[in-house]
Specification:
This protein is of the alpha+beta class. The chain has 3 helices and 8 strands.
Length: 139
């Protein structure tokens, strides 16, 4: 299923930089009568590689769409901050640099944060990923 749905979120530093990557891989579509995508955050830095299971609801997808709008306005966002799952934050640091963090509050209490150097058009790429996932859910 992952090959078909891919990643709802994918942020990877360009070659020649730190090589930081954070992605939210969609593992499985919701079962009938269930409103939850089975996903996992995958985080890779020079010193850390980790994955965190996440259940993403349709309301969460709506919140991600709104978060992308806020990011397009240059604002910081916190997504999945209900306390029931991993929390994802993005904060503009300087032109061409954002701070990214993933916090596994309900389970391990691990937080991984790092600066990220997104490619131009990264927000539009995230919007396209969101729409691809929504289409897969609707079909």
């Amino acid at each position: 299923m992952e090959d078909e749905l891919g990643e709802l979120i994918h942020l990877a530093d360009p070659p020649g930089t730190s090589g930081h990557v954070v992605s939210l891989r969609v593992l499985e579509l919701p079962a009938p009568g269930r409103d939850c995508l089975d996903c996992e955050f995958v985080v890779e830095t020079e010193t850390v590689r980790g994955s965190f299971p996440v259940c993403v609801s349709s309301d969460d997808l709506d919140d991600w769409r709104e978060a992308l709008e806020e990011l397009a306005r240059g604002r910081s966002v916190s997504w999945l901050n209900s306390g029931r799952t991993v929390q994802f934050k993005i904060k503009p640091l300087s032109p061409g640099v954002i701070g990214v963090s993933v916090h596994d509050g309900p389970s391990s209490q691990v937080t991984v944060g790092f600066p990220h150097f997104p490619a131009s058009g990264w927000i539009d790429d995230q919007r396209a990923r969101l729409e691809r996932v929504r289409r897969a859910i609707a079909s």
